[in-house]
Amino acid sequence: MHLLVTGGTGFAMAHVVRQHLSADPAARATVVDIAPPDAQARRFFAGLGPRMQMVTADLTDPAAYATLPADADAVVHGAALTPHRYTTTDGILHWPERDTPLRVIETNIMATARMLDWWRQQPGRGAFVNLSSGSVYAPEVPGVEFVAEDDHVLPDALYDITKYTGERLTRRFAALYERPMLSVRLSSVFGAMDRATVARHVRCIPQRLAMNALAGRPTRVVSAQATGDYVSAADVARAIRLLLAAPPGALHHDAYNIADARLTTIAELQVLLAPLTGGCPVEEVPAATAEITQPAALRTGKYAAYDTARLRRDTGWAPRPLAETLAEYVDWLRAEAAAG
């Protein structure tokens, strides 16, 4: 199979590319990204050889689509701009949602629409998988700590709105052109290749805990009982590949959650990480001095656990234990530190 992956040098999409090429010596991949591979991506893709072709392109530009391969068999569309607030090392606050909202809309909505329109005109009849997010769920649903795909969808932030719009576009194109097109909603993802890029500046809780622990620093938190539904990027990629490989008639839905399907506290992550890192100290401090300010009460709606029953039924997928995937992540962090 020749798989086209947009956003392919980024985080979870890099795992899709590597797993796809590693599983089949005859497989090919075209990776489309707005920036060429950085040093970490080059190390991650080492050994994959000429079966992986890079296309550096901005998918908001209509001219970019002339550079895409016409012989692709399937598409995973992960290119997006994640506009969360972040502060650079020089202390400057960046907030893309507020600073460049049209850029977010152009990247996450119009580029998705253009990709769908391009793919429906191609001869390949394989699936189009659109990468969405659990952020499409309502920010708070009192008493609901477990959400399924048809429950409580109410995006509020700009990123959330653009992701849900991408889902609806994908669903409509599937109906109009009778093509296998679907979306996946991810919970909080961690793992190898999680780093700042031109399109994404997100530091998840497992990353902060693991990196601080390896550096011998405590992680300052508001509450060690703050939770998240944490799934590894490698397991996300495996789920996507199972969806791509599903035989006709096997998939019965247009959206699938990919998650661990349970909430894990910072204290529980601490216990799992401590033997892997030589200790994982956590200090509860006031919000003004905390690195992780998430309160323990934030555990409903999009902060809840995500039901993965439909994905399990249709593909047989299940996430690996967190102890295993966290160990895999710490090994990668150590290797990256050694590589400089």
Topology, pairings included?
Layout: E1 2-6, H1 12-23, E2 28-33, H2 39-44, E3 52-56, E4 74-77, E5 86-87, E6 93-94, H3 96-99, H4 101-120, E7 128-133, E8 146-147, H5 158-177, E9 181-186, E10 188-190, H6 205-214, E11 219-221, E12 227-228, E13 230-232, H7 233-245, E14 255-258, E15 264-265, H8 266-277, E16 282-284, E17 305-306, H9 309-315, H10 322-339
Parallel strand pairs: 1-2, 1-4, 2-3, 4-7, 7-9, 8-17, 9-14, 10-13, 11-16
Antiparallel strand pairs: 5-6, 12-15
Helix pairs in contact: 1-7, 4-5, 6-8, 6-10, 8-10
Write up what this structure looks like.
The chain has ten helices and 17 strands. Helix content is 36%, strand content 18%. The mean pLDDT is 95. With 340 residues, it is an alpha/beta fold.
**What's the helical proportion of residues?**
25-40%
First-last Cα distance: 35 Å
Average of pLDDT: 95
Alpha plus pi helix count? 10
**What structural class do the secondary elements suggest?**
alpha/beta
**SSE ordering:** EHEHEEEEHHEEHEEHEEEHEEHEEHH
CA-based shape? globular
From the alpha carbons, calculate the radius of gyration and give it in angstroms: 19 Å
Low-confidence stretches: none
- In the sheet with the most strands, the strands line up as 3-2-1-4-7-9-14
Strand content: 15-25%
**In total, how many beta strands?**
17
